[in-house]
Write a structure and sequence with these properties.
Helices cover about 40% and strands about 20% of the residues. The chain starts with a strand and ends in a 9-residue tail after the last helix. α2 links the parallel β2 and β3. By secondary structure, it is of the alpha/beta class.
Length: about 170
């Protein structure tokens, strides 16, 4: 069962980004994957909501020590007490990271994933360029469907099934 981190701004209100996160979360769950996130609002809540609607499991790695602050669609809430440092735990838990939109916290997760060798799919967000076409490990997707197709390819390359459900 693949663990896919879906990351993005916790205070996101843009309907396109929230719909994208919902679709990615739903698609991860439909593939038998676990949605891993920071457990709060915005993109994280939308991804969890999508995953739960598709019957999936969600794991929220919270920055504080109170599990009750997790969004209502988190099945497993882990209060880390690490603040922003929990981003490293989110990244290390994931087989693939999907970044939807982005602000500084999302950029830190992308950077941590690149350093860890965790593949990243970026959709509607940061376009990181290292002067040679972008850092290795970051693939830019055009929308949720494209992101899920890339996710299938990345999981297959890691020896994990692209889909375990019809």
């Amino acid at each position: 069962m693949p663990y896919v981190a879906v990351v993005g701004p916790g205070d996101e209100t843009d309907e396109v980004l929230l719909a994208t996160a919902y679709a990615v979360g739903s698609g991860v769950a439909a593939r038998g994957g676990v949605v891993v996130c920071g457990g709060l609002g915005g993109v994280m809540a939308a991804a969890c909501r999508g995953a739960r609607a598709a019957g999936g499991v969600t794991l929220g790695l919270l920055p504080g020590t109170d599990r009750s602050v997790a969004n209502p669609w988190v099945v497993i809430a882990v209060p880390t007490g690490l603040g922003e440092a929990r981003n490293a735990v989110v990244v290390r838990t994931a087989d693939v990271l999907v970044a939807v939109g982005g602000r500084w916290g999302t950029l830190s997760e992308i950077a941590l994933a690149c350093r860890a060798g965790t593949p990243v799919v970026a959709v509607h967000g940061w376009r990181v360029d290292d002067g040679a076409g972008g850092p290795r490990g970051v693939t830019v997707a055009t929308d949720a469907a494209n992101a899920l197709g890339i996710l299938d390819t990345l999981l297959a390359a890691r020896g994990q099934p692209a889909s375990t459900r019809p």
